[in-house]
């Protein structure tokens, strides 16, 4: 399960129910930064089987002390890197392939805009958007995916239902 830019409690008091459900069933939760409050980090650490996370540009103090700028992890034979910002969309694939050699999947956030492309080197770039601050998108989003025997499959962008 992949999320980013949750901005709790600034953009929402809590994560959407559908995201908490996905977190509960995931073997690994990846969060690409902009938590805003350490209380959400504590909750995700408590409720996740395994959490891989970084800090974002809106994260300060304890969040920066507890979370790295870049996280790396190998899952089922895939080498993941997680970072909050990758810069402008133009040239992103080449820039990220150069910055993250030896990486199979790069998870990033910051823009709140979902992204799924593959660089010529084979690096897969994924941005889950934001579940709480949709910006110019029709709805909030997060991703689920399956890492299996060195392959990433079943990558699904989930729309967050509007708040009732």
Describe the structure.
This protein has four helices and ten strands. The two termini are 24 Å apart. The model has no long low-confidence stretch (mean pLDDT 95). The strands form three sheets. Strands 4-5-6-8-7 form a five-stranded mixed beta sheet, with no helix packed on it. It has a three-stranded parallel beta sheet with strand order 1-2-3, with no helix packed on it. It has a two-stranded antiparallel sheet with strand order 9-10. Strand 5, helix 4 and strand 6 form a beta-alpha-beta unit. The chain is an alpha/beta fold and 164 residues long.
What's the number of extended β-strand segments?
10
Distance between the termini: 24 Å
User: Total number of helical segments?
Assistant: 4
- Provide the low-confidence segments as ranges: none
Annotate the secondary structure layout.
Blueprint: E1 2-3, H1 17-25, E2 29-31, H2 38-47, E3 51-53, H3 62-66, E4 70-75, E5 78-83, H4 92-99, E6 105-107, E7 115-118, E8 124-127, E9 140-148, E10 151-160
């Amino acid at each position: 399960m992949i999320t980013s830019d949750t901005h709790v409690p600034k953009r929402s008091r809590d994560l959407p129910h559908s995201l908490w459900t996905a977190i509960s069933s995931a073997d690994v939760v990846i969060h690409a930064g902009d938590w805003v409050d350490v209380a959400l980090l504590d909750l995700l650490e408590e409720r996740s089987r395994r959490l891989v996370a970084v800090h974002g540009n809106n994260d300060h103090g304890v969040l920066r002390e507890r979370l790295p700028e870049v996280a790396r992890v190998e899952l089922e034979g895939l080498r993941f890197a997680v970072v909050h910002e990758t810069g402008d969309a133009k040239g992103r694939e080449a820039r990220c392939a150069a910055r993250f050699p030896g990486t199979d999947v790069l998870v990033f956030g910051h823009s709140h805009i979902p992204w799924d492309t593959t660089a010529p080197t084979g690096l897969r770039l994924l941005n889950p958007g934001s579940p709480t601050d949709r910006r110019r998108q029709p709805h909030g989003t997060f991703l689920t995916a399956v890492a299996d025997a060195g392959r990433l499959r079943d990558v699904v962008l989930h729309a967050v239902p509007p708040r009732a």
